[in-house]
Write a structure and sequence with these properties.
The chain is α/β, with parallel strands linked by helices. It has two domains: 372 residues, no CATH class; 195 residues, no CATH class. It contains 24 helices and seven strands. Strands 2-1-3-5-4-7-6 form a seven-stranded mixed beta sheet. Strand 6 and strand 7 form a beta hairpin. It is globular and about 80 Å long. This is Mannosyltransferase. Pathway: Protein modification; protein glycosylation.
């Protein structure tokens, strides 16, 4: 018998392992991670607050299309400060890791609390199967520590689902737990994600249908009002201060901009069935979960009623939210613990009967095999996802390059780099070293000015030819570019790219070398030359300013410097030492 603590450790270890192996952030996470950095680094003052925020805070220069809430950043900053670890951390990267670990552990605690409710209502075996199935999924574990607004909401909705599980398994006090469920989901919707209003609606409808009309006035309306008032009292004062707009309710602004004005479709549209045909299978990952276990729990008489009480409001939320044309898996992530719990109920039904017949022994073995392959698929996705952060990897490579430099280093960071891992946390190299100073200027007229580039020691850019001045490319960062079918006689990946990965010092490069050997053996002896291969392409370049004078034959003072290949009819000249010169006619 595996002890309960082992399942707890499994959940914690996997979340922290994913964080350790993929420690950088992407653009969707940037607001909260930058806001947390600014609060931790500069604090908060109410004296001349407008000028203070304008001087120090990143969101003033990069506000985005709509204001977003600072509540999550305030929470992370407070817990990070209270932890007492800040002074002991040598680098900004370590502090960023701590901040993300706190969010990851918060979501882990929510999942463990949900597990405990399952154990109380359905037994220890169901609770353990929930952990195994949940941990073997990729998205929840990988994103648990990522500072998306959805992941702050996820913790609250998971606590809410805990109360909902108790409401359907402890009927004597179900009204109290229904109240907690609706109040928490409403609060999360008001503060973090407005789409949760639809989940409040479907949960309320199911409670009203199953409990009766009296629940409307005794539970549903009071819980909704409580969640709304507490949410507004949290978000409006905090966000009005940080955005210097009084009063401000960010989630209302987002809802109005994206839903009422219809701007969400600018980010892409998907067919009505996307959540059911694509997102849910990817999120649940294990095909037995939605192909066997959930149906089994719904159609088995002893588990049907309680399983339906979990599944129906959650899938109704997904169905109603499918009416919006812009769809992303993270908009429905909140239903995954609930659906996984029903999978665990089905898994328990099979597992408890494994000694009774050959069929149940076979299904139990199939269940274990499916979990193994789900873990395998998750770690393959992790390996691929690690290649989506060239900006973060560029900073790590630059740390090795500049480890002996003792002065402040000015670095220009282009849009791709800033969206794929470069954050203000990484400006702090080491407590004993001068800082990096990042510049993320996007204004085209400024970028066309030669004097703008004079202050930079290094440039991180996708397009070296757009850099004005004398710089040399000293490193190239490779990244994920998709999959492709390799036919007999074709090379799956250029050898120099594999070598470049290995030489970065990243262990992933070494693993890729091992994988490449496995791939060659399989193609030679099993698949007759056919294979599905990774595509790895150059994504970012690290440029260093050259201190030498002008090259022979090139007159700097007479030449017209031009920004961008599309803006001039001249030519690019590459110096003997790799420097990039851009000249117009």
């Amino acid at each position: 018998m595996v002890p309960e603590s082992a399942f707890t450790l499994l959940l914690l270890i996997v979340i922290l392992l994913y964080l350790r192996l993929a420690p950088y952030t992407k653009v969707e996470e940037s607001f909260n991670i930058q806001a947390t950095h600014d609060i931790l680094s500069y604090g908060v003052t109410f004296n001349d607050s407008k000028n203070f925020l304008t001087t120090h805070y990143d969101h003033i220069d990069f506000p985005g299309s709509v204001p977003r809430t600072f509540v999550g950043a305030v929470f992370l900053s407070a817990i990070t400060t209270l932890s007492g670890f800040i002074a002991a951390l040598p680098t900004g990267a370590a502090l960023q890791f701590l901040v993300r670990a706190i969010l990851g552990l918060t979501n882990a605690f929510a999942l463990l609390s949900f597990r405990n409710a399952l154990q109380r209502g359905f037994g220890k075996t169901t609770a353990n199967w929930f952990i195994v199935l949940q941990v073997s999924q990729f998205h929840v574990m990988y994103y648990a520590s990522r500072t998306l607004p959805n992941m702050f909401a996820f913790a609250i909705t998971t606590f809410a689902l805990r109360s909902y599980i108790l409401a359907i398994t402890v009927p004597l006090i179900s009204s109290r737990f229904h109240w907690k469920t609706l109040a928490l989901v409403t609060y999360a919707g008001v503060v973090f994600r407005s789409e949760l209003a639809v989940l409040v609606l479907t949960l309320s409808a199911y409670i009203l249908f199953t409990v009766g009309r009296y629940s409307l006035t005794k539970t549903i309306i009071p819980a909704g009002i409580t969640g709304l008032v507490l949410g507004l009292l949290t978000t409006v004062p905090i966000d009005s201060f940080f955005w210097q707009q009084y009063p401000l309710w960010p989630e209302w602004s987002s809802f109005y901009y994206n839903t009422i004005l219809g701007n969400s479709s600018n980010w892409g549209v998907s067919p009505w069935h996307f959540y059911f045909s694509n997102a849910l299978p990817r999120l649940l990952l294990n095909p037995l979960s939605y192909g066997l276990l959930i149906p089994l729990a719904l159609f088995t008489p002893s588990t049907r009623q309680r399983s339906a009480a979990i599944v129906l409001p959650l899938l109704s939320f997904v169905a109603l939210y499918s009416a919006l044309s812009h769809k992303e898996w993270r908009f429905i992530l909140y239903v995954i613990p609930g659906l996984t719990s029903v999978s665990a109920i089905g898994a328990t039904w099979i597992w408890n009967r494994r000694a009774k017949s050959v069929l149940y022994r076979f299904l139990s073995a199939l269940l274990l095999i499916s979990v193994f392959f789900s873990f395998l698929a998750s770690f393959i996705q992790l390996s691929v996802s690690r290649l989506n952060y060239p900006g973060g990897q560029a900073i790590i490579n630059l740390l090795h390059t500049t480890q002996n430099e003792t002065c402040t280093i000015n670095i220009y960071v282009d849009n791709l780099a800033s969206q794929t891992g470069v954050t203000r946390f990484l400006e702090n190299r080491h407590s004993t070293d001068p800082k990096y100073v990042f510049d993320k200027t996007e204004d085209i007229s400024t970028l066309h000015t030669p004097e703008f580039w004079d202050k930079f020691d290094y440039v991180l850019t996708q397009h070296p030819e757009t850099t004005i001045g004398k710089f040399e490319v000293i490193d190239t960062i490779y990244g994920w570019a998709g999959l492709r079918v390799v036919r007999p006689g074709e090379e799956p990946m250029k050898e120099e790219m594999l070598q470049a990965l290995a030489l970065t010092g990243d262990r992933f490069g070494n693993w890729m070398m091992v994988y490449e050997g496995f791939e060659r053996n399989m193609r030679d002896h099993v698949t007759r030359g056919w294979w599905i291969s990774f595509r790895i392409e150059p994504r970012l370049n690290i440029l260093r300013r050259q201190n030498t004078g002008p090259q022979e034959g090139v007159d700097e003072e007479e030449g017209d410097w031009v920004f961008g290949e599309e803006d001039f009819d001249g030519e690019f000249e590459k110096g003997y030492d790799g420097s990039i010169w851009v000249r117009g006619e």
